[in-house]
Amino acid sequence: MKQFDLVIVGAGIIGLAHAFHASQAGLNVAVIDRSPNALGASVRNFGMLALNAQAPGSQLSSAHKSLRYWQAIAPQAGFELRQSGCIFVARAPEEMAVLQEFAQSAKMAAHGAHLVASEDLGRYCPALNADRALGALFSAETWKVDQRQANAKMAAWLQQKYDVSFYFSTEVQEVSPPHISTSAGNFTANHVVLCGGDEFASLFPDAFAANGVKSCQLQMMRTHPQPKEWRLQPFVMGGLSMSRYSAFSSCPSLKDLLTMQAQRFQPHIDHGIHVIIAQEPDGSITIGDSHAYGDGRILARSSEVDALILAEAADLVHLAEPQIAERWLGHYAYLPNATSLVFSPADGVTAVNQTSGQGMTHGFSIAKDVIADMVR
Ligand SMILES: Cc1cc2nc3c(=O)[nH]c(=O)nc-3n(C[C@H](O)[C@H](O)[C@H](O)COP(=O)(O)OP(=O)(O)OC[C@H]3O[C@@H](n4cnc5c(N)ncnc54)[C@H](O)[C@@H]3O)c2cc1C
């Protein structure tokens, strides 16, 4: 029998963030994951610490708080975290109006953002299709983490520095603290935190269903590495991201942008497409994404959606090497109008999900509060 103070189910970023805070609070922690290594949303995303996407107030301060943990951990654990910045490019007057209103508001200072004239765009991102751009908003407060390396390196660091025990290729089958049954035998712990991502229904399915949690499926792609001298630097986005991110939600012109998009971008809206373009440490370019909501994983991939994403990306950026080398699906737990779900489905059990597709950005803040409540 393996005994711990706390067992965490799931070794994605939410599970690791809980392991970090719990270890710092002096708890003896085990993390159990059914995969041989983390394979879920935490390694399938853009690695964007999206301070640029947050509304000022509690959202932005949660993202700031999380960022400070990433900054402290990355150099110790040995994975890349760079201040990439982010550029929102306006190619239509309705998009430019939203950026200008954002620029005139106090939000600008909160985001460390400024407007960029079309003739200056090349200085921020030479690869942009500047002839199509009316101007842009550059936000320095956006960070890029190496999402494919970070999870594994953070797990190794937690094990080495805090003596966190990891059990991979081990499925948690039943949880009734202090008893936890797994495919590798029984564990005991006074507390269990469920961080199962979109596989939330594997334990306490009825309690999750009662909370109305859905699954969101996203389509992602990656190019071959670009030539060495070709650098993207910031994340690049267009108008479809302005209407998606709550950072812009109080701009009065947003309604005109939505009207324009309903006329010209209906297929994109139907598939929840907003295009993000990011460069990885090996020089390849990650391009996504779409959003399909349902009660479980959908799994089918739509070539129409891929084509819409790639056409929009090509309109924003001129890639030296546009050929797609990799396509994958990602999934996260989704709750309409809520950024997180924290509840107790049974005594001694806390379920934690980030539910708006921003777990990399907010994970450490959410976990900090959960662990503080637990050890209070
Ligand atoms: C395509 C895509 C792009 C995204 N882009 C960004 C971004 O740029 N920035 C951002 O902030 N967020 C982004 N997100 C959201 C972010 O990736 C997620 O919010 C976050 O990774 C969720 O982490 P998690 O630990 O909850 O889930 P996961 O990473 O999915 O981990 C859950 C783990 O639980 C394990 N598990 C489940 N049930 C059991 C069980 N019974 N026994 C054992 N193990 C179990 C699974 O094997 C899995 O490894 C994106 C998401 C996707 C899909």
Largest β-sheet summary = 9 strands, mixed
Bound molecules: flavin-adenine dinucleotide
Architecture (CATH level 2) name of the largest domain:
2-Layer Sandwich
Structural domain count: 2
Beta-strand fraction estimate: 25-35%
List the helices and strands and how they pair.
Layout: E1 2-9, H1 13-24, E2 29-32, E3 48-49, H2 58-77, E4 81-82, E5 86-90, H3 93-104, H4 107-111, E6 113-117, H5 121-124, E7 135-139, E8 143-145, H6 147-162, E9 165-167, E10 172-176, E11 179-182, E12 185-194, H7 205-210, E13 214-223, E14 235-237, H8 239-242, H9 254-264, H10 266-270, E15 276-279, E16 285-288, E17 292-294, H11 303-316, E18 324-334, E19 340-346, E20 349-354, H12 359-375
Parallel strand pairs: 1-2, 1-12, 2-9, 5-14, 12-20
Antiparallel strand pairs: 3-8, 4-8, 5-7, 6-7, 10-11, 11-12, 13-16, 13-17, 13-18, 14-15, 15-16, 19-20
Helix pairs in contact: 1-6, 1-12, 2-6, 2-12, 3-9
The chain binds flavin-adenine dinucleotide (FAD).
Describe the protein's architecture and organization.
The two termini are 27 Å apart. This protein folds into two domains: 2-43 and 148-211 and 338-375, FAD/NAD(P)-binding domain, CATH 3.50.50.60; 86-140 and 214-334, 2-Layer Sandwich (D-Amino Acid Oxidase, Chain A, domain 2), CATH 3.30.9. The protein is globular. Helix 1 links the parallel strand 1 (2-9) and strand 2. It is built from twelve helices and 20 strands. By secondary structure, the protein is of the alpha+beta class. The longest helix is centred in the first third of the chain and has 20 residues, at 58-77. Strands 5, 6, 7, 13, 14, 15, 16, 17 and 18 form a nine-stranded mixed β-sheet that branches. Strands 1, 2, 9, 10, 11, 12, 19 and 20 form an eight-stranded mixed β-sheet that branches. It has a three-stranded antiparallel β-sheet with strand order 3-8-4. Helix content is 34%, strand content 28%. Flavin-adenine dinucleotide is lined by residues 9-15, 32-35, 38-42, 44-48, 50, 171-172, 195-199, 202-203, 218, 220, 288-289, 330-332, 353-354, 357-361.
